[in-house]
Specification:
This protein has 308 residues and is α/β, with parallel strands linked by helices. It has one domain: TIM Barrel (Alpha-Beta Barrel). Helices cover 39% and strands 15% of the residues. The chain has helices at 45-57, 78-85, 103-112, 114-123, 147-163, 177-187, 206-214, 229-232, 235-244, 273-286, 288-295, 297-303, and strands at residues 8-11, 14-16, 24-28, 62-65, 88-90, 92-94, 135-139, 167-170, 195-198, 218-222, 251-254, 304-305. It has a 6-stranded parallel β-sheet with strand order 6-7-8-9-10-11, sandwiched between helices. A 3-stranded antiparallel β-sheet has the order 2-1-12. Strands 3-4-5 form a 3-stranded parallel β-sheet. α4 (114-123) packs across α5 (147-163) and α10 packs across α11 (288-295). The protein is globular. The model has no long low-confidence stretch (mean pLDDT 96). It binds zinc ion. Zinc ion binds next to loops. Residues 27, 29, 66, 256, 258 line the site of zinc ion. The modification N6-carboxylysine is found at residue 137.
Length: 308
């Protein structure tokens, strides 16, 4: 009889039991840099520490950073930040859309092998930091997948097969969810419960949300943000609709702070808003019990894997 390894969440300070993840911001960023967000970089270690402390003070226990390779993750700083603030942190490997990189750096990655890079960052560490990633982040396009998305998702599936790591997907404005599932779970045979779809709230087509949940994927609702203010208010309705259909066990919640001005310590909603704003609103929509499950048990299940 084959017994598989116990499921663990891979944090920057080591592997932990999923139950120890506690109240989790399942999709956020401490550090982020992209040519697409000039002048808005999340780059300050001090601001990151203050934001984590504010999240901790609001009752938060853990944060999953979805910043992928080459976007200023500052992996080497994450262990000290986690130690100093008492907030558990999970880091990511993976690759975002091509627009976030220079053509030269993408060429280098093609030459060195993307799946190999992902596996190395998941099992040995990011750069020379010794900090191991706990998920693979990739991205789709607007209502479709281009060659870059197919390349990165194929590498993600390969790295998933080698390590067991979950795959978290940025859906561009919440679209192309079914294309992503067709590719990852159809063609590339990744188990649907190992795929986390982000940003569906930016495209509040409830029928589509139901299809993605029915397929077995996890749905990560995130925000709010100024850019997505027009759809953010519909999130509680989407969550309630999915919960009513019996999909409450595959819903995740995150803050997705992507700019310096969005941090709570800079006057934005930031990470504490998940617990001070989103949580009470969802408690009204689906009750306290399910809201708590989404913030704790669901996150543990999403990021807890039997690492290979
Ligand atoms: Zn994000």
């Amino acid at each position: 009889m084959v017994t598989s390894a116990p499921e663990k969440v891979r944090t920057v300070l080591g592997d932990i039991n999923p139950a120890d993840l506690g109240v989790c911001d399942a999709h956020d960023h401490l550090f982020l840099r992209s040519p697409q967000l000039p002048g808005q970089e999340l780059d300050s270690v001090d601001a990151a520490a203050e934001e984590l402390a504010a999240f901790r003070a609001a009752g938060g226990v853990s944060v999953v950073q979805w910043t992928p390779h080459g976007m200023g993750r500052h992996a080497e700083r994450l262990p000290e930040l986690s130690g100093a603030t008492g907030v558990r942190i999970v880091a990511a490997t993976g690759l975002h859309q091509a627009a976030h990189y220079t053509p030269e750096s993408l060429e280098r990655l093609r030459a060195q092998g993307l799946a190999e890079l992902f596996v190395r960052e998941l099992t040995e560490g990011i750069g020379h930091s010794g900090v191991r990633a706990g998920l693979i982040k990739v991205a789709g396009g607007f209502h479709g997948l281009d060659g870059h998305a197919r390349w990165t998702m194929t590498a993600a599936a390969e790295a998933h097969r080698a390590t067991g790591a979950p795959i978290a997907v940025h859906l561009e404005l919440g679209t192309a969810a079914l294309d992503v599932l067709d590719l990852l779970c159809g063609e590339l045979a990744v188990a649907p419960h190992r795929v986390i779809l982000g940003h569906l709230n930016r495209f509040p087509d409830l029928a589509l949300h139901h299809q993605a949940a029915e397929a077995g994927a996890l749905l990560a609702f995130d925000g709010p943000s100024r850019a997505h203010h027009a759809t953010d208010w519909r999130m509680p309705d989407a969550v309630r609709s999915l919960a009513d259909a019996g999909f409450g066990d595959r819903l995740l919640l995150g803050g997705d702070t992507t700019t310096a001005g969005a941090r709570s310590v800079c006057g934005g909603p930031g990470m504490p808003h998940l617990l001070r704003g989103v949580r009470p609103r969802l408690e009204r929509a689906v009750g306290a019990e399910l809201t708590e499950l989404m913030l704790t048990v669901n996150a543990g299940r999403a990021f807890g894997v039997a690492w290979r």
